[in-house]
Design goal:
Zincin-like; alpha+beta; single chain; 13% strand; 57% helix
Amino acid sequence: MTLKKLLLFGLSAVGLIYTMVLALNIYAVALTAADTEADLRMYAPVDDVVVVEWADLEAGTYSTCAWDGERYVIQLEAGLITTNPAVVRDALIHEWAHMLAWDDADTHDGLWGYHYAQAYSAVMEP
């Protein structure tokens, strides 16, 4: 085998390994998001419909929570799918706390902190 073929094979193998690792990470992140959402729905429930979705958000924004008149919509930055699963878990807990403290949703005050602790406990200590 020539050096050129060896290099091409090596680069292909590295690319394949990288792709496999990335796919496993994406699976872990998606699974963490689903598990976190299930725990929150069970142990920190709300009376309204909640939709959690992946979206392309503004630069520097990891997640958002909004009321669209009929339901709460929590959006997670699509780019987070390739990050550490704990980042996605924490972003979802953060937004769930905003939803629980909806009358005061734009702040991170004591009411939000109370609900953050409730949501965090729902996920970490179900």
